[in-house]
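User: quick one, sequence for these tokens?
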């Protein structure tokens, strides 16, 4: 779910699908952990290809409902309590981070910058959002802080290296961020403490492949990460060990953008194995793939209290 402009995002999604819509020392205050693992699993939010909007559906694929209707919207991300979604929208002429409630109401713009702001992910507690932006002339990770009324109060840059750092995903306890970076030449998955990059906080590279690695997502208990590599869904331990291919052959079309269910038992993803990009789900061990029959990408699974 990269951020250049939305048309380029779609090109990445459908081409590399071809790879995917492939925070100075301010410390991010530690927040309460997300819902205990396993949690309760709600609906799946996703970008609908047919409408260009964010929709949600039941975990079985039934009951789809469109949540947005202005501009083009993608990369939905649920709060830990499942009551709000952050997302990226170009409705005001530039891609920015927005927020809405679970029913698609109270849509609020949270960033306002001439640069690109995209791919938000919430910290537990709902008062901070990680995202990536090129506002500093470089593609870096940032953290947006909200006040008690949900209004933006501060934006802090996290990464500092001249590189393309994208797709931040916050660990369930809010202490770490996994992300994608080409700082060593190829797009790989990295993890760092959720504070500004420094000599004592160097991002750790978790993958090392000639292939492109994108779209990391933490398991609800914080022990594992799934990501996409050249049309396959890979699961690994949070330290990068035990990398396991969960899905099949890219020749089948390819599988991308994995997202854990809050109970940790399933993974949603989009696949073009049937020639059309649709949302699928499977067990966390890669077995039992099911086509949910909803054309789209960027799945995000709602936690329930």
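Assistant:
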């Amino acid at each position: 779910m990269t951020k250049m402009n939305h048309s380029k995002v779609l090109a990445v999604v459908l081409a590399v699908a071809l790879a995917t819509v492939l925070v100075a020392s301010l410390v991010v205050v530690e927040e309460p952990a997300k819902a205990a693992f396993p949690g309760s699993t709600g609906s799946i939010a996703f970008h609908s290809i047919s409408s260009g909007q964010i929709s949600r559906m039941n975990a079985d694929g039934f009951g789809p409902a469109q949540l947005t209707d202005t501009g083009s919207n993608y990369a939905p991300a649920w709060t830990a309590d499942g009551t709000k979604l952050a997302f990226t929208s170009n409705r005001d002429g530039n891609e920015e981070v927005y927020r809405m409630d679970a029913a698609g109401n109270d849509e609020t713009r949270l960033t306002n910058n001439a640069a690109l702001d995209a791919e938000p992910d919430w910290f537990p507690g709902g008062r901070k959002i990680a995202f990536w932006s090129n506002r500093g002339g470089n593609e870096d990770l940032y953290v947006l802080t909200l006040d008690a009324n949900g209004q933006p109060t501060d934006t802090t840059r996290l990464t500092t290296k001249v590189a393309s750092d994208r797709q931040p995903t916050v660990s369930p306890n809010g202490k770490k961020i996994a992300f994608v970076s080409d700082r060593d030449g190829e797009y790989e998955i990295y993890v760092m403490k959720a504070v500004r990059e420094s000599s004592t906080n160097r991002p750790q590279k978790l993958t090392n492949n000639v292939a492109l690695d994108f779209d990391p997502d933490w398991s609800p208990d914080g022990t594992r990460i799934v990501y996409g590599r050249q049309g396959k869904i890979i699961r690994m331990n949070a330290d990068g060990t035990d990398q396991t291919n969960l899905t099949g052959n890219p020749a089948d079309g390819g599988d991308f953008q994995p997202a854990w269910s809050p109970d940790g038992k399933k993974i949603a993803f989009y696949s073009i194995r049937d020639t059309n990009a649709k949302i699928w789900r499977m067990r966390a061990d890669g077995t039992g793939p099911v086509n949910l029959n909803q054309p789209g990408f960027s799945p995000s699974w709602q936690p329930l209290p």
